C-alpha cells in the first residue's frame, strides 16, 4: 500500500515539475521578448517593436485612446519617434501567467516613460503562442504617474 502511495506521489511530483519547467520556459521566452521589445523602443526601431505583435494587435494607450492593427500602430510609433527623438518606454513585468492549454499568457507589470506626457503606470498584455512563438495580441496601459 505504501509503495502505491509513494509511487503516486512521485509521479504527481514529476508531472508538477514537468509542467513548471514548461511554463518556466514559456515565461522566460515572454520575458526575453519583452526585453527585446524594450531595446527596440530605446533604439526607435519600429520594425523591432512590431515584430512582437500579431497582425490584429490591439493597443490601449495610457491616455485611454486605442488603436488596432499592427501596421496602423507601427505607423503611430514612427510618428511618435519623429516628433520626439528622446521619448522612450520601459515595461517591467511583475507577473506572467500561462494558460492551461499553453496557448495564451497574461503579463502584468509597471511601465515607465521618458520624455512623454506621462511618467508611467501599470500595464497588462495578452500573449498568444503562434507557430511556437509568443506574440502580443493586446496591450493595455494605464497612466498613473
Order of helices and strands: HHEEHEEEE
State the name of the first-level CATH class.
Alpha Beta
Mean pLDDT over the full residue set = 89
Contiguous uncertain segments of 5+ residues:
5-19
* Total discrete domains: 1
Characterize the main sheet. 6 strands, mixed
Radius of gyration: 19 Å
Distance between the termini: 60 Å
Question: Which keywords apply here?
Answer:
alpha+beta; Nuclear Transport Factor 2, Chain: A; 6-stranded mixed beta sheet; single chain; 38% strand; 145 residues
Outline the structure in words:
The model is unreliable at 5-19 (pLDDT under 50). 41% of the residues lie in helices and 38% in strands. The longest helix has 41 residues, at 2-42. Strands 2-1-6-5-4-3 form a six-stranded mixed beta sheet, covered by helices on one side. The chain has a single domain, classed as Nuclear Transport Factor 2, Chain: A (Roll), CATH 3.10.450. It is globular, with a radius of gyration of 19 Å. It contains three helices and six strands, in the order ααββαββββ. It is α+β, with helices and mostly antiparallel strands and 145 residues long. The protein has helices at 2-42, 46-50, 70-83; strands at residues 53-60, 66-68, 88-98, 104-114, 120-130, 133-143.
Short description:
This protein is α+β, with helices and mostly antiparallel strands and 145 residues long. The chain has three helices and six strands.
Q: What is this structure's SSE topology?
A:
Elements: H1 2-42, H2 46-50, E1 53-60, E2 66-68, H3 70-83, E3 88-98, E4 104-114, E5 120-130, E6 133-143
Parallel strand pairs: 1-6
Antiparallel strand pairs: 1-2, 3-4, 4-5, 5-6
Amino acid at each position: 500500500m505504501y509503495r502505491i502511495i509513494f509511487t503516486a506521489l512521485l509521479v504527481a511530483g514529476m508531472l508538477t515539475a514537468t509542467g513548471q519547467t514548461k511554463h518556466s520556459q514559456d515565461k522566460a521566452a515572454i520575458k526575453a521578448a519583452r526585453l527585446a521589445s524594450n531595446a527596440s523602443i530605446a533604439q526607435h526601431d519600429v520594425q523591432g517593436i512590431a515584430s512582437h505583435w500579431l497582425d490584429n494587435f490591439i493597443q490601449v494607450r495610457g491616455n485611454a485612446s486605442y488603436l488596432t492593427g499592427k501596421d496602423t500602430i507601427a505607423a503611430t510609433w514612427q510618428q511618435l519617434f519623429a516628433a520626439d527623438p528622446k521619448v522612450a518606454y520601459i515595461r517591467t513585468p511583475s507577473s506572467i501567467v500561462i494558460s492551461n492549454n499553453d496557448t495564451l499568457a497574461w503579463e502584468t507589470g509597471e511601465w515607465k516613460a521618458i520624455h512623454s506626457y506621462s511618467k508611467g503606470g501599470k500595464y497588462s498584455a495578452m500573449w498568444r503562442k503562434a507557430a511556437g512563438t509568443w506574440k502580443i495580441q493586446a496591450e493595455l496601459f494605464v497612466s498613473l504617474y
